[in-house]
Amino acid sequence: MNLRQLRYVVATADHGTMTSAAQALYVAQPALSRAVRELERELGVELFARSGRGVALTTVGEQVVRQARIALEAVEAIEGLTVARADGRGAELRVAATLALEAELTGWLIPRFSRDQPAVRIRAVRCAGREAVAAAIRSGRADLALTDLPVPSDLAAHPVEHREVVLVSPPGLKLREPLPPAVLDGMPLVLPTRGGPRRAELDAMLARIGVSPVAAVESDEQRSWPSWVRAGAGSLLWYRSGLEDTQGLVVRSFTPPLSRMIGLVHAHRRLPPVARDFLAFAKDAARERRNGDGRVREHL
């Protein structure tokens, strides 16, 4: 028996279906179901009665959930005893990020948070990718991490921002709307320089959908990308929320949509106050940006 299993059982009881519980915890539904079944086998009892409409607690399941809530509250209280900092004064927060998101963390989130809480010392932890992010959280090198979702089920995930990827093209390009992702195969694109984190992330997305575009221009000068598109050099994959001046350009969506979910993750434990403050701040800042109040634009 472990705390993750107890959290999954409580969430399933609260949400009524394992699918809804998995969505609330932002974990894969098969992983949650497997953890619940493992706990049932370990205890030798059935916690939930399954049906086509969802699940219902058995009599013994109700007793287990009642005790699981007490156990989880006790764990949170014990972890809270280790937080000896009042109102974040003198607190230190370690936030990891993948290379592709490091600029967003250090150039936008941390400066804005530090403006509101100048006494908090924030240290950015650089990670090569999602696997390194997970390792930093598990080892305790970082309290939080900014990364792409989903992450392994032993980490708690908080979605911060959903970003739609669109195709930005010169007006003469005749394409239907919305576009099938297959149209990208062989298409000339303006791309980040090969070997960098932005290009690696984009190449991974293109590989997942099975297309191989042609690199018409390779440049890390993000501000110059729309100019290359206007000049007819190629099209560009960009986040819809990051578009500013689209004059002379055509923006098209994909079907099914191409998107990316960014989130903050941490270990399944009670966060110190400063980490909870940063988590709430990041969600509010992303909401402001969606409403057009933010000043920093996303990059691939």
UniProtKB/TrEMBL annotation:
Gene Ontology MF, one: DNA-binding transcription factor activity
UniProt-listed PROSITE patterns: HTH_LYSR
GO cellular component: protein-DNA complex
Residue ranges of domain HTH lysR-type in the record: 1-58
Keywords: DNA-binding, Transcription, Transcription regulation
Keyword field contains Protease: no
Pfam families for this protein: HTH_1, LysR_substrate
CDD domains in the cross-refs: PBP2_LTTR_substrate (cd05466)
UniProt-listed PANTHER family: HTH-TYPE TRANSCRIPTIONAL REGULATOR CYNR, TRANSCRIPTIONAL DUAL REGULATOR HCAR-RELATED
Similarity annotation: Belongs to the LysR transcriptional regulatory family.
Protein name (database record): DNA-binding transcriptional regulator, LysR family
